[in-house]
Amino acid sequence: MSDALLEVRGLSKHFPSRAGLFRRAKGSVRAVDGVDFTIRRGETLGLVGESGCGKTTTGRCVLQLERPTHGRILFEGTDISELSQRDLRQMRRRMQVIFQDPYSSLNPRMTVGEILAEPIKVHGIISDPAKRQARVRQLLEEVGLLPQHARRYPHQLSGGQRQRVGIARALAMEPSLIVCDEPVSALDVSIQAQIINLLEDLQTRLGLTYLFIAHDLSVVRHISDRVAVMYLGKIVELADRQALYEDPLHPYTRALLSAVPIPDPKLEAKRERMVLRGEVPSSLNPPSGCVFHPRCPIAVDRCSAEIPPLREIKPGHWAACHLA
Amino acid sequence: MATLLDVRNLKTTFATGAGPVRAVDGVSWDVEEGETVALVGESGCGKSVSALSIMRLIDAPAGRIEAGEVIYKGRDLLKLSEEEMRHVRGREIGMIFQEPMTSLNPVLTIGRQLTEGLEIHVKLDPAAARARAIELLGLVGIADGERRLAQYPHQFSGGMRQRMMIAMALACNPSLVLADEPTTALDVTIQAQILELMRSLSKRLGVAMLIITHNLGVVARYADRVNVMYAGRIIERATAAELYANPRHPYTLGLLHSVPRLDEPRRARLHPIDGQPPDLSRLPPGCAFAPRCSYRVARCDAESPVLTQAGPGGHVAACWESVRLVRKAAA
Fold first, then answer.
1. B313 touches A: beta carbon within 8 Å
2. Sign of dihedral through CA atoms B240, B246, B251, B253?
3. Quick one: which of A93, A313, B104, B330 is 20 to 30 A from A197 by CA?
4. pTM score, two decimals?
C-alpha cells in the first residue's frame, strides 16, 4: 500500500438548479468540477478559496455527506463511494469532521460528558459505562479541558472551549482522517492560536491526517504541509506549502496572497496591492475556457477558448494556467 | 488639525440576567478632521457598543448611556433632541455595517433607498436626487447606475451591497463615517476592493473615518491612529506605526504575536494568549487582563491601571508593567 490515506480522483458534484413555478431543473450548479488530490498519511493538506469555490462541498463529498456526481474517493485503499450503508458506517468512524461553529453542532440539551460518551456507546467502541467515563475524562484532558467541564452544557462554555469539545468528539471515534472545515474562523484572534496549536499537538501525538479547509491564507500556511487553491469548483494550484507561498504560479493565487493585509504599517505602506477586477462569476454559468480569465490581469485570447489542465510545472508543483 | 469628534468618559451599561454589565466603561478618544481612527478588539470588548452609543442607537430599556459626553463639531450629541439626532445620523455622520443585507430595506429599490435621504436631509427635488444617486453609484464603482437604481438589494452580490452601503453613507456629504467591521463578511479579494475604495474616497472627499475591526492587518494598512479595547476599556492608544513597532500593553503584544503572518518565516508554534476572554459580569477587581497576563504582578490584582504616557505621538497604555514589555522577534 502506498502512503496515501485519501485519494480523490475526478471528483465532481453538481446540484440541480431549480427555477419557476414547478421548480423544474434548469441546468446545474457545478459546485465541484473535476478535482484530484491525494493526502498522505500524517500530513495536512490545506484547501483554500473564497466562498462558493467548492472547498466545503469537496470536504462533504470526502465524508460521504454528499454523494459525488462523478469521481472516486479512495480511503485507506477502498473506494468508499461503492460501499454499502453498513460498511460506510464503519468507515465513517475513521474519518471525522470539525465544523466552523461548534455551537450549532453540539446538542444544547446534553452535557459535554454526554456529548462525548454518546458516539462511543452508539458505535460500540466501549460498552462498559465506567470505562466509557474514564475515556471521556481522557478525551477532555487531551483537548485541554478539565474533568469538571463534563458536567457543563455547551452554552456555559466560551467559543474556544466549545471548539475543544468539538475536537474531543471527533477524537472519540479514533479517526485517522479529520476534515477541519473552517475550525478557527468563528473564534477570537487570541483563541485561534490556542486551537491551532492544539490541532498540531494532536496530530503529532496521535498520527492524525488533516484536510484543513479555510479561507485564511496565513492560518493555512501555518498548519499545512501542502496547499490546494480552489476557484469556481476547480483546483487551480497545488504545491508544497513553501513553493505555493514563495513562488505562486497561478495569477489567482498571487492575487489572493496580495489581498491579505499584513499587520505592519511600514510594510503595508510600501506594498503594492494587486486588486482583482469584478467578482466571482456564478458557477451556474461559468466562463468559457479558464474560469478565472474574466478577472485575470494577464489573460490572453487562448484563455477564453481553452480550459487549462492542472499541469505539473515543477516537481510537485501543479497549476492550471496556460501562461504558467 | 481640528478635533471633529471628542468622546469623553463614555459609559454604557446593559441590564442582563447576571446583573448590569458595563459594556463601555469610561472611554475617551477623539477623531480629527479627515483622519482614520480604528477601534480594535475582540468580541465583547465594547468597540461596537461605543459606536452605537455615539449614534444613540443603544436599545432602551436594557441598554443605557450612563455618563459621558460625545462632542461632535462643538455640540454634545447626548444632549440633542431625537429630532436633531435624526438629522445628525442622516446627514452629518454616515454609517456602514458588517452585514449590508440587514441594513438595506429588501422591499425598496436601490434608487429609493439612495434618494430618500437626499430628499429629506439635503432637500433635493426628485430629479436632482436621482442624478446624485447615479453619481454616487459611479463613485463607489457600480457602473450602469441608471439600470441599477431600479433593482432591489437581493439582486446585488455581497460586495455590491457593501458598495451600496458606502454610497448611502456618503450620500449627504458627511464629515465622519463610522464603519463597523465593514469587510468582515466579504471574501478576501472583495475585502481588498472595498477597503481600497474606502481609503481613496476618504482621502478624496476629506471624510474622517472610524473603523471598528478585530483584524490587525486591516488596521495596519488603513488607520492613522489606533485604540485597542479590552473588557470595555481602552488599554492602549498610539499612531498605527508606533503601536505595531512598540506595543506597550501585554494584550496588544499578545494579539500581535498570536497571528501567523505571511511576511515572516513560518514559526514552528504560534504564541496564543492564555485563558479565555473576560466575562463582563464577573470582572476581577484590578486589571481585567491580569488573569491572562504573563507580566502580572501583585499590584495588577489590586489596582486598575490608568492610561499613562508610554511613547511619542500621544502613545498611552494602561499597564503597571509596560516598561518591561519587549517585542519578541519571530522565533
1. no
2. positive
3. A93
4. 0.88
